[in-house]
Amino acid sequence: MTDLLIHDAIVVTMDRENRVLENGSVRVSDGTVSSVEPTDPADRDATASRVIDADGKVVMPGLVDAHRHTDFTLVQGLFSELAGDELLTEALSLYHTAESALGESFFEAGWRLACLRQLTHGVTTVNAMDFTPAIGAEAIGDAGLRGVIGPELADLLDPAPADEQIADARRFIETYHGSHGGRVTASIAPGGEAGCSRELWEGVADLRAAYPDLRLHTHLYDSAAADTMAAGSGASDPLDLLDRYDLLDERTLLTHLLHADRDDAGRIAESGAHVLHCPTVYSYFRSGGRSWFPLPSLSEFGANVVIGLDDPFWFDSWDLIQEAKHARLLSNYEYGSQQWSSYDLLEAITVDAARALGLDDRIGSLEPGKRADLIVVDVDTPRHRPFSNLPSVLVNTVTAGDVETVVVDGRVLMADRSVESMDVESVRAAATRERERLESRTGWETSLAGSTPPDESILRRVSSRALLRAARQYGRGALARWVR
Where is each Amidohydrolase-related domain found (predicted)? Predict the structure, then answer.
């Protein structure tokens, strides 16, 4: 018995043959894609538990957000008009304020809202690095989504010592890896060369040895002082730091690389590590003399480059399709046209991202035997038709608002833009309540016209020894970097 039948769709399979079926049907049984074939007239009258007529619409794999921090979902709009350094310092210190003054309910409401937004934006899988990973794992699992999540480890910024953070990470892995029917998996997530001591890197190496199948997810080269920071752990540069602890290989996810050069790109590609690119966060605050993401060198050496949205409070966006568009525009502006083709971008938010997360045997393309993670996109509108070159339509004119149906593991989570796997009103009510508590307890003034930070900077009112230690050791810029 077919559980789900979608017929008369334009099926973008993202498979190895790059098949696009102009009029195709997708069948799902027991959460798995059983067939992807041209639509037979009999499909329109076929028996299935659920049938979707997708005439004039696109069916494609669910989107994969390759790098996300989610703890601060509820601060949308607070920081949007601040300068970059001011935003970062306020955000980091606000996190510590929220942790002590607002409690778990603040983060629970934020995670549930994040899952609702991801779902309605067609993001079926997220790779997250957060300080509240257990809350996130439960939220992702309950929403019916898929996620890879790791506790962010940073003993130079978190008051907990390195051994305690490693022990907590081990408990998280033992509790949540493979949970919720296998949809939630764990990662090992050191924050990067700036916020991790040598002791913590040693603990991370022990975790990697104990759990060799897990992805290692970290930031790298997103500060001009990256080499100096790596030297604090006895390495010549950040890649050497990972190499020394046997952490640089095909299971490694490297985020940002803003200040990496051509030589670094070659070393990364040779190692097999994957690169997680989040272009908009940097363009939002970029200053003239700053380095930029070395896409041409990474492409030259054949590194796998995929795309993520990073923190929600940077530019208040949850649209991964538009992020892919920005990736191309910004790279073309920096290096010249044709840095990425439209199909390259589709791969970067589906099958290549799944490969980076070690999930490409299960998701990322529509093929028999893979889990049925897919979305239906409405392109039968005056905004899109008539068209040719469908990949360009999907990454140039489609937005997340065109996603109307979302399926994960064969379960319909949203149909015709109506969410079925979450109580939308309760999510919104909790988010509103916790947002109001945040504003009242921190002194932020908000209105429809904007927001204003407290008269006295939050940073000066937070006495966390970790913040002070990081500020003394690395300075304000490195301290600020650690909200990401």
Answer: 58-412
Q: State the Cα–Cα distance between residues 361 and 15, nearest whole angstrom.
A: 11
Domain borders along the chain are 4-61+374-419, 63-356
C-alpha distances out from residue 45 to 53, 168, 405, Å = 11, 53, 21
According to CATH, what is the number of the domain 63-356? Answer: 3.20.20.140
Nearest residue to 221 (alpha-carbon basis) of 152, 277, 285, 149: 277
Tell me the CA distances in angstroms from 75 to 78, 244, 423, 436, one per residue in order: 6, 38, 21, 10
- Closest by CA to 245, choosing from 222, 275, 216, is 216
Read off the pLDDT of each residue in 419-424 and give the average, rounded to a whole number.
98
CA dihedral 128, 132, 136, 137 (to 10 degrees): 90
**Helices (H), ranges, 419-481:** 424-442, 458-461, 465-481
Q: What is the full DSSP assignment across 131-150?
A: S-HHHHHHHHHHHT-EEEEE
SS3 412: strand
For residues 411 and 344, give the distance between their C-alpha atoms in angstroms, rounded to a whole number: 28
> Nearest CA to 245 among 214, 194, 191, 207?
207
How far out from the chain centre does Cα 262 lie? Answer: 25
4-61+374-419 belongs to which CATH class?
A: mainly beta
Give the pLDDT score at 483: 37
What's the rounded Cα separation, in Å, for the pair 111 and 434? 12
Q: Rounded to an integer, what distance in angstroms lies between the CA atom of residue 361 and that of residue 346? A: 18
DSSP reduced 3-state for 379: coil
Q: Give 438-471 pLDDT, tens digit per residue.
A: 888 877 788 888 887 776 554 444 434 444 444 4
Predicted local distance difference test score (pLDDT) of residue 158: 76
pTM, two decimal places? 0.92
- Here the tokens at position 455 are 């008269």
Local structure of 28: helix, strand or coil: strand
